[in-house]
TrEMBL record:
Transmembrane segments: none annotated. It holds the Pfam family Acetyltransf_1. PROSITE patterns: GNAT (PS51186). This is GNAT family N-acetyltransferase. InterPro entries: Acyl_CoA_acyltransferase, GNAT_dom. CDD domains: NAT_SF. Residues 1-138 form the N-acetyltransferase domain.
Amino acid sequence: MSMELTDRILPEDEKAVFEGLLAFNLAHLEDKEPRDLGIYERDGENKIVAGIIGYTHGNWLMIKYLWVKEDLRGQGTGKKLLLEAEKEAEKRNCKYVFLDTFSFQAPEFYKKYGYQEQFALENYPLTGKRYYYTKSLTHAAE
């Protein structure tokens, strides 16, 4: 056996590591069927001007990205996307939401909609912060 250190990860090497981890995880996870979730706002030319991308897995909605074109910010588009994603997550029987955001992005936005900080990476990547939030969805208390 030999160990290799590199700063250039080849697609086939990443695939080998991912597939090994995936096989291990699938043997231990109760829910083996995560489902993608995408919601998009399009303009008159059918171009995406805002969107949310994530997936549901078991009890959780995991939000990967929420973006609103700069000239549309502050008009309720982000709120509409977030609430629609939460609504769909509840239809999929999710009880919780998880996401992360940088200090220069939207921590106050998420707090306004009931998200609670779980932890923050300080000095990330150098001088900023990266916040990790969760939220319990309404039907979780049922």
